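To: structure subgroup
Subject: Chain for Friday's discussion

All,

I'm putting the inputs and outputs inline so they're searchable in the archive.
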Amino acid sequence: MKKEEKKYDFSELTIEEGLKRLSKITGEMEKEDCSLENSFDLYEEGTALIKYVNSKIEEVEAKVSMITKDGSEVPFTEGQES
């Protein structure tokens, strides 16, 4: 029987907060007294958090790439292709 995948809500996290949480997760996993079950839970959360942080970074990169050479900003709309 496949374990049900947990849903995480990171929508309120900034990129910086997400990176701090990833650092904490890594630290917790490195502890000698971290159980295998807890390691799996932390790994699952970390993997989901990496996906979230990467998507937020991609959003920022897309916004930055929309800035024109003269310094004016072109409005960014989600899903817009360059």
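Points worth raising on Friday:
The longest helix spans residues 36-65.
The two ends are 44 Å apart (CA to CA).

D.
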